[in-house]
Design a protein that fits this description.
The chain is mainly α. It has six helices and no strands. Helices cover 51% and strands 0% of the residues. It is globular and about 30 Å long. The termini are far apart. The relative contact order is 0.14.
Length: 122
């Protein structure tokens, strides 16, 4: 049920942000992210959650028009430059920081990030 429906069904209903994840999509939860991580073979650490927060924030700030794969890749590389940039992110997300990171963050991955026919490049 989306926010507009919730407000109609339960007047005065306000979605509560998840502590530590102020930019999370309204239909996202920690439990869902942990289930996705398990299916992706990832053992989540605080470093993974930091990437999830960054992706959620970047996607919220750039909702229209949506970021393309290159822009999001470059933004993540810059955000995590001190830790080693994109090489650091690939250590956390071996199948690609955009592909796996967006799945965990509950945001739509940019086109081409999970296209196995062309290879996962980001």
């Amino acid at each position: 049920m989306n926010d507009a429906t919730q407000d109609f069904v339960r007047p005065g209903f306000e979605t509560q942000p998840i502590p530590g994840f102020p930019h999370a999509p309204s239909d996202w939860s920690l439990e869902q992210a942990e289930e996705v991580a398990q299916t992706e073979g990832l053992e989540l650490t605080e470093a993974h959650w930091e990437v999830v927060r960054a992706l959620q924030e970047l996607c919220t700030q750039n909702a229209e028009p949506a970021l393309n794969a290159r822009d999001l890749h470059d933004a993540l590389d810059e955000h995590f430059h001190a830790e080693g940039g994109i090489k650091y992110l690939y250590q956390l997300f071996p199948e690609g920081p955009l592909a796996q990171g967006c799945l965990l963050a509950g945001v739509e991955p940019p086109a081409g990030t999970r296209d196995q026919g062309m290879g996962s490049a980001v």
